[in-house]
Amino acid sequence: MALVQPIFAIWIFELDQMPPTFRGMRFLEPVSLSGRHVHLEPLELEHAPLLLAAAEPARATYTFTLVPRDLPGMSDYVAAAVAERERGEGLPFVVRDAARTVVGSTRFYSIERWKWDGTPAEPIPTGPDAVEIGFTWYAERVQRTALNTEAKLLLCTHAFERWRVRRVTWKTDSRNERSRAAIQRLGARLDGILRAHRPGADGIVRDTAFFSMLASEWPQAKARLRAFLDR
Predict the structure, then answer these.
(1) Could you give the CA distance from residue 107 to residue 14 in angstroms, rounded to a whole number?
(2) Burial 119-129 (b: 16+ CB within 10 A, else e)
(3) Helix, strand or coil for residue 12?
């Protein structure tokens, strides 16, 4: 009985009393999200060759985005994402179009589980306190289409309405005007530019533009995204 009691005690914690890591991992189970234009499925190792095939026609559009160029590289890329999921640090997806053809990848990562000295501020998330959406890239033929809009709608709905996160973050190379415009089109706000942040996909030291959306801003952004899809 002494071995059973501590395990059982974990499961009777109230949500706001759960250890942050346990609370986050509980809600980072692999999940599939589907709409009319896009299907997001848990990323697995066998998706590597399909992702490589999706990326091949679009190399010119990946100047500021790290997309592996060969199967060993793509296999390592996928394996790292899957390992991140197993550690409770991310939730990677393979992206399929309406015909179920693999066209890219995206993920939740930079999972934040805040530690409070006292009672957490309301409303208390049922999952992480904040997450980032990134590592997003698509085959050229679906870029700037309803697929991307609906993918972001599905991801943000899951984050804000299922997990009830306080914030969603996006970041991109500050030179990537196309990506910056797409993020702002979602309703996210520019928080600032972090100079000399990290190596860029093209081998230089890049500045990074940080964007975010708060839970209070989500209803208006959701309506905006739905309006785009209804056009």
Answers:
(1) 28
(2) ebeeebbebbb
(3) coil
3 state SS of 138:
strand
Threshold 0.90, pTM exceeds:
no
How far is Cα 146 from Cα 229, in angstroms, rounded to an integer? Answer: 6
Classify each residue of 136-146 as buried b or exposed e, where b means 16 or more C-beta atoms within 10 Å of its C-beta: bbbbbebbeeb
Q: Which two tokens stand for residue 171?
A: 């970041």
DSSP H helices in the chain:
4-11, 20-26, 48-55, 71-86, 146-157, 177-185, 218-230
Largest CA distance in the chain: 62
Note the pLDDT tens digit of each residue in 150-167. Answer: 999 999 999 999 999 999
Residue 35 CA from chain centroid, whole number: 17
8 A C-beta contact, residue 100 and residue 39: yes
Q: Under DSSP, is residue 38 helix (H, G, I), strand (E, B) or coil? A: strand
Distances (CA, A) of 222 to 11, 38, 57, 156, 162: 34, 17, 32, 8, 14
Give the span between the Cα atoms of 151 and 170, in whole angstroms. Answer: 14
Tell me which residues of the chain have a pLDDT lower than 50. Answer: 1-25
Domain covering 4-230, topology? Aminopeptidase (3.40.630)
